TrEMBL record:
Species assigned in the record: Billgrantia gudaonensis
Location of the FecR N-terminal domain: 19-60
Gene Ontology MF, one: sigma factor antagonist activity
Name of protein: FecR family protein
Top-level taxonomy: Bacteria, Pseudomonadati, Pseudomonadota, Gammaproteobacteria, Oceanospirillales
PANTHER family given in the database record: PERIPLASMIC SIGNAL SENSOR AND SIGMA FACTOR ACTIVATOR FECR-RELATED, PROTEIN FECR
FecR protein domain sequence ranges: 119-210
Domain of life: Bacteria
Length: 327
């Protein structure tokens, strides 16, 4: 295969398939792998040509890593203060994105950001951090951030995910901000959340006030308690009423009020590994209730019961919600 065609093949690989392949490979490398798991992996590979391509890509790179010269094997990328096993590297998708990341942008991949950020959570995890000035951070699922405090300023760099910030009560003259790719949020004695999404930043204010400033704009938009807005390439959207159920997600609960199935699936997908899909005919069905984000399988089962649907597990990492088969 020519270099051009090889690069094209690598760049066209689905990142989700790469992460799934890395999880399957890590499972098969475990000491207690069962024959049933081997067969399940084989079925996953046969489900889609994209699955098999991702699997073969990992197999090829694994062979190349095994043949690295000693000086390359000792590089900082593959060494740390704690032992890193081949299985461990694959479990957080490192190898998958080491391969695909050359085409997708390695430093922007979820695995890279979570591994090297100062504070991070995995998919389905949450974490609370108290900073030196008394500020409390609640990191939601799949979140990574760095903290930069010095004599002149206090800054949080939100790399991905969502964080709930409760600023410290003690007097501190240093300016405080939460920085994302789109801009920065400047709180005024407050409690607020910042969500770094693919192409925008969503800010919600629960107490106090927050000023939003885009990187490309010197003007700031101020949000009061009970308001939320989005920063994107076009500017800052007008303030709108707060989504009252959003705060519950930091406590592991999804509060749904006439929520579309498509929207609920999009939220649940952030809290579990793999892929969650739905049949087109169920996308606009609406559901109300309180669902667990700590146990997304239970949430999916509750959704199915409420709307007389069924949840089909093709593998533990591939789930589809569809109309119930009455037959």
């Amino acid at each position: 295969m020519s270099r051009t065609s090889a690069d094209s093949s690598r760049e066209s690989l689905d990142p989700v398939a790469l992460e799934q392949a890395s999880l399957w490979m890590a499972r098969l490398w475990s000491d207690d792998v069962s024959e049933e798991q081997r067969q399940a992996c084989l079925r996953w590979r046969r489900e889609s040509p994209e699955h098999e391509r991702a699997w073969q890509q990992l197999q090829a790179i694994d062979g190349r890593l095994a043949s690295l010269p000693s000086h390359a094997a000792r590089s900082e990328l593959f060494s740390s203060s704690r032992e890193v096993s081949r299985r461990g590297l694959l479990q957080w998708g490192g190898l998958a994105m080491l391969l695909g990341g050359l085409g997708f942008g390695l430093s922007r991949t979820p695995q890279w950001q979570r591994q090297f950020a100062e504070h991070a959570t995995g998919i389905g995890e949450s974490r609370e951090v108290t900073l030196s000035d008394g500020t409390r951070l609640r990191l939601d699922t799949d979140t990574a951030l760095d903290v930069s405090f010095d004599a002149d300023r206090r800054r949080i760099h939100l790399l991905r995910g969502e964080v709930l910030v409760t600023t410290g009560k003690a007097a501190d003259d240093r300016p405080f901000s939460v920085v994302t790719r789109q801009g920065a949020s400047y709180p005024i004695g407050t409690r607020f959340s910042v969500h770094q999404r693919a192409e925008s930043t969503r800010v919600a204010v629960y107490e106090g006030r927050v000023a939003l400033g885009r990187r490309a704009d010197a003007e700031r938009v101020t949000l009061d308690a009970g308001q939320q807005a989005t920063m994107n390439a076009d500017g800052v959207t007008p303030p709108e009423p707060l989504d009252t159920g959003r705060l519950a997600r930091f406590e592991g609960r999804l509060v749904a009020e006439s929520l579309r199935v498509a929207e609920m699936v999009e939220i649940l997908a952030r809290y579990r590994h793999g892929v969650v899909r739905y049949a087109p005919e169920v996308a606009d069905l609406r559901v109300s209730g309180v669902f667990s984000l700590r146990d997304t399988d239970r949430a999916l089962a509750s959704l199915a019961d409420a709307l007389s649907l069924q949840v089909v597990y093709r593998t533990p990492l591939w789930v589809t919600i569809q109309p119930r088969d009455e037959g």
